Amino acid sequence: MDFGKAYTSDNLQFLMEGFLYTLKLAAVSILLSFIFGVLIGTLRYARIPVLSPALGWLVEIIRNLPLLLIIFFIRFALPELGIRFSLFGSAVFALTLFETAMIAEVVRSGLRSVDKGLVEAARSSGLSAFRTLRHIVLPIGLKRMVPPLVSQFISLLKDTSLMVIISLPELTHNANIVMGQHIEIVFPTLLLVAGLYFAVNYALSLVARRLESRQS
């Protein structure tokens, strides 16, 4: 192994560009999946006739498909139907679709964990179902689901590495290019890549643990 050859200024700059691209992809996907996940999870909790069961089936289908298959479908199958996205758009769509289903289930479970007595008390005091959901169920439920949500965000960040399969210029993709220069720099390059992923994910896991300890 040769750390000197691996950690040249050009290689480090190229890897950091991939790392920043990874963070950008993760940030956009996390934001979108959180918005859609909360919306769908809330609609499922509300048990709206037809709509809630339909969303439930959609969530279950997506949750039981491999993310890699979803990536392939969006990037290579949809264009045959005339639906095309940019490379970055395809990655965001795939991650958002998959994580939305996961987050929706977290949200639904979090809302269902709210004490039914609180809900009944709110309804008996004259609050409508919507106001009860908005002022009672959502605030309490969202607070309880913060740790599992952070865990899902960590999973999403790690899943960005799968985008190497469609040649997205994220961290893993750029690392593969660097490693292609010489066999002696494979270990140092992967060590740095692992350290970058670990640093971000470990920081997020510490946040999740701290939030969880505050609730106990």
TrEMBL record:
Recorded GO CC terms: ATP-binding cassette (ABC) transporter complex
Gene3D superfamilies cross-referenced by the UniProt entry: MetI-like
Subcellular location: Cell membrane
Transmembrane segments: 21-43, 55-78, 85-104, 185-208
Sample GO molecular function, one term: transmembrane transporter activity
Keyword annotations of the record: Amino-acid transport, Cell membrane, Membrane, Transmembrane, Transmembrane helix, Transport
Domain (ABC transmembrane type-1) ranges: 19-208
Membrane topology label: Multi-pass membrane protein
InterPro entries found in the cross-reference section: AA_ABC_transptr_permease_3TM (IPR010065), ArtM/GltK/GlnP/TcyL/YhdX-like (IPR043429), MetI-like (IPR000515), MetI-like_sf (IPR035906)
Gene Ontology BP annotations: amino acid transport
Family as reported in the entry's similarity comment: Belongs to the binding-protein-dependent transport system permease family.
Protein name: Putative glutamine transport system permease protein
